[in-house]
Amino acid sequence: MTTYLEANKQRFLDELFDLLRIPSVSADSKFKGDVRRAAEFVRDKLTAAGLDKAQLYDTPGHPVVYAEKIVDPARPTVLVYGHYDVQPADPYELWNTPPFEPTIRNERIYARGACDDKGQFYMHIKAIEAMLATDGLPCNVKVMIEGEEEVGSDHLGTFVVEHRDMLQADVILISDTSIISNETPSLETGLRGLSYVEVQVTGANRDLHSGVYGGGVANPINVLCEMIASLHDEQGRITIPGFYDNVTELSDEERAELAKAPFDLEEYKRDLAINDVMGETGYSTNERTSIRPTLDVNGIWGGYIGEGAKTVLPSVASAKISMRLVPDQTPEEITERFTKHFVSIAPAGVTVQVKPHHGGMPYVTPVDSVEFEAASKAFEDAWGKKPVPTRGGGSIPITALFEKELGVKSILMGFGLDSDALHSPNESYGLFNFYKGIETIPYFYKHYAALKQ
Ligand code: BES
Ligand code: MN
Ligand code: MN
Q: Where is the Peptidase M20 dimerisation domain (predicted)?
């Protein structure tokens, strides 16, 4: 297997570059054709890798790509999930090289989607190709790569329900998360959920002269800022009544276990160019970004932001707010509590509207399963080290859905780094990580087949 990888290294990279050149931005309808082109590219590479039945499944949104290789129905089946869509590349001017012209610098691939998730799911296609080419695929494999992950996987739920039999598997394998560092491999054992809302505060029926009316009429931007500021208390806790009701507190033992993961606070601050961290009192940075829920403004707008000064009281102010959720919070419950609270704190003189966007359930995967053991052993084989179990802060809402609809657990075998700048300008993925992933994946199949005997 490793010789096959060695012999095909450059081609694997060239193919990934071709995929990275396709701007498959799911959020922006002007890229709709490119999104489809990326799906077709993936389909063709699945066929070329030796998988059967590779095809596009149309949805009301972007297509799902699916292929499979059933080597023996008696063997265990692995369902690989990934996403070929990417986040918008804006702001383009902050990229050192264009986002859709992949470039190598310092042993890293720079491009939008290099790590999230094109570079990561493509490792699976190449690992499967290598196993098939060397007669070493010990499990059945199904591959499902979707095109709407970055916009909330709106149509995937229906797709999964409608294709339950086709997708039936023993385990779901996903590479769309991070490891601690290239020296300290890790396996994420949980993901946060998400509740995303847009709020609008409206004052007078039109923009007003801030001299003529200022001081006498509510300014929606002032009001919105005060309302948002009141959503956290001095301890960094969220003030929405009932927000923490369903939060599962970890035991001291569980917290001590997670605290074993190496973490260098000084390096963390240096990387982000900040002079201090902040967050909820009583929790470490790692805990604040994984096992604790959050509320953050993602964008805020209103009034005059053009050149120079315009004296105006805006009629409307808006913000987009995300809440990261932990077990056993649900997006429905949290969105409802947020809405009720936010409307209730609106002062007289304005009206408030809350519009819910997409959401997703938090997810945890057990560490005492053969699936986790197989992944752990795969890391040991390829990295010479046992991976450290961690809890992740990001969200992959489909994991909870897979569990609910298929009754199958997901293994989060990601190979990225938090410093890969996912969703940011200059996203990158290490060549080391790309190739190490291709090397690690076949070990998972080997151990999983053996453990399921
Ligand atoms: N791959 C990420 C999630 C992720 C990143 C998990 C790093 C763990 C470590 C995924 O593509 C993503 O960005 N998810 C969105 C979900 C949303 C759009 C529903 C997120 O977390 O914001
Ligand atoms: Mn992703
Ligand atoms: Mn993402």
A: 190-347
Residue 49 placed within a domain: yes
Q: Which of 395, 401, 410, 429 to probe ligand 1 with, by most ligand atoms within 8 A of CB? A: 395
**Secondary structure (3-state) at 406:** helix
Q: Which residue has the tokens 């961690």?
A: 390
Pair (302, 368) in one structural domain: no
Assess if residue 308 is contained within a domain: yes
pLDDT tens string for the chain (453 positions)?
779 999 999 999 999 999 999 999 999 999 999 999 999 999 999 999 999 999 999 999 999 999 999 999 999 999 999 999 999 999 999 999 999 999 999 999 999 999 999 999 999 999 999 999 998 999 999 999 999 999 999 999 999 999 999 999 999 999 999 999 999 999 999 999 999 999 999 999 999 999 999 999 999 999 999 999 999 999 999 999 999 999 999 999 999 999 999 999 999 999 999 999 999 999 999 999 999 999 999 999 999 999 999 999 999 999 999 999 999 999 999 999 999 999 999 999 999 999 999 899 999 999 999 999 999 999 999 999 999 999 999 999 999 999 999 999 999 999 999 999 999 999 999 999 999 999 999 999 999 999 998
Number of domains making up the chain:
2
How far is CA 331 from its chain centroid? 16
Q: ∠20-23-26 over CA atoms, to 5°? A: 120
Same domain, 89 and 210: no
Is the same domain home to 221 and 127? no
Domain finish residue from 360, 387, 408: 360
Show which of 328, 360, 392 is a domain's final residue.
360
Distance between Cα 86 and ligand 3 center (Å): 7
Cβ 26 vs Cβ 35: under 8 Å: yes
List residues near ligand 1 (CB under 6 A). 116-117, 149-150, 152, 176-178, 191, 194, 358, 360, 392, 394-397, 422
Report d(CA 284, CA 123) in Å as an integer.
Answer: 33
